Amino acid sequence: MSEPDFHQILGVTPSASAAEIKRAFKRLAMRWHPDRNADPRAHEQFRLAREAFEHLTGLRESEPPVSTDEKPSAQRPKGDDHRLHVDLDLHEAAFGGVVTVTLAGRVGCESCGGSGRRSYGRTTMCSACHGSGRVRSGGGLKSCPSCSGKGYFTENQCADCEGRGWNPSDRQLAVSIPPAMMPGEELRVAGQGGPAPEDGEPGDLYLVLHTRPHPLFRLEGRDIHTDLPVSVFRVLAGGVVDVPTLGGIRETLLPESSSATEIRVTGAGFPGRGRRSAGDLVAHLQVHYPRFLSKEQKALLEMADQILHQQLDDQSPPLARWRETLKQQQNR
Ligand SMILES: [Zn+2]
Ligand SMILES: [Zn+2]
To answer: What is the pLDDT of residue 62?
Structure first.
């Protein structure tokens, strides 16, 4: 028993490309799919076409068969996936929010009801035979090949949609962004990609998230860095400073050592998700010195300085003795 002629079943030439075979199968599938066609022959016709398609495309390494799976969902063709870049502010990325994206959509053509054809064809004269339907050939006249001897063409493509059956139409889509989405991560919005092919489902939309620069915070991994101005008096005296975080002000104790240059607030950075724990807030201390001091401030500082000197002398007896010697020499 010889193999059926798969090319003939699909109505393509033996040299047909994979794309041509695909198109031919799609045409037949649209016509004969049992879901769409009540004709008793439909089932067998569809089965034959699918067998031919799968056989022919299976022969091409680069073109795997559409599906050998019997599940109907796996057989449904899918529209293109689309990718869209979305800028969030850091707060939205951390705690979630709603963004509105503009998508290139389609709206069915009202003029033709989506068919792409107009009900009354517009007639244009054939320019090859000037409407006569015949052209000169080898001293005689023959039927015009351009118009098949009719002398005119009937144009019944819908002019409003150029035969597509739809017109482009932007649409707005509000998308909820879940919390703790890091820049560069993608959010899948099912069914909002390219339009569904005949008898298929639409593609998916992928939102690629980015964060706008923040005036206060810099994101490094999940840690958030910020600069924090602190007065030199506060640094010397120690105590509590107000550290800004994404979630608000955090009162934080300054480190014991007044020479520390940063404070780390554990877990106060970018929130965690899944197995990733939250980052830290790292405040880089920017110590500010006063430009002018009042008399009272100066007096207080003098007092503080003398106490400090006393401590230095206590800590270093040789220095204290040397100072004493200097004083005695000056007094001579
Ligand atoms: Zn139309
Ligand atoms: Zn003609």
So the answer is: 40
What mean pLDDT, rounded, does the chain reach?
A: 85
Helical ranges in 229-294 per DSSP H: 232-237
Q: Is the pTM of this model over 0.70?
A: no
Confidence of residue 73 (pLDDT cuts 50, 70, 90): low
Ligand with minimal distance to 145 CA:
2
Ligand 2: distance of its center to the CA of 93 in Å? 65
- 162 CA → ligand 1 middle, Å: 7
Domain 76-102+170-213 fold is HSP40/DNAj peptide-binding domain (2.60.260)
CATH superfamily for domain 218-288: Urease metallochaperone UreE, N-terminal domain (2.60.260.20)
156: CA distance to ligand 2 center in Å?
Answer: 18
- Rounded CA gap, 263 and 243, in Å? 9
Task: Return the pLDDT at 208.
Answer: 95
What token pair was written down for 36?
């769409």
Among the bound ligands, the one closest to the CA of 130: 2
The alpha carbon of 118 and the centre of ligand 1 are apart by a number of angstroms equal to 7
What separation in Å is there between the alpha carbon of 150 and the centre of ligand 2?
A: 6
Q: Which of 27, 18, 24 has its CA nearest to residue 59?
A: 18
Cα separation, 32 vs 40, whole angstroms: 10
Can you say whether residue 48 is alpha, beta or left, with left for phi > 0 and alpha for psi between -120 and 50 degrees? alpha
Ligand nearest to the CA of 151: 2
H-type alpha helices, the chain:
6-10, 18-32, 42-58, 72-75, 90-95, 232-237, 295-315, 317-331
Give the pair of three-digit tokens for residue 114.
């989506």
The interaxial angle of helices 18-32 and 42-58, nearest 10 deg, is 170
Q: Name the architecture of domain 6-75.
A: Orthogonal Bundle (1.10)
* Cα-based distances in Å from 82 to 25, 75, 106, 159, 235: 25, 21, 15, 29, 53
Over residues 93-105, the pLDDT tens digits come to: 999 999 999 988 7
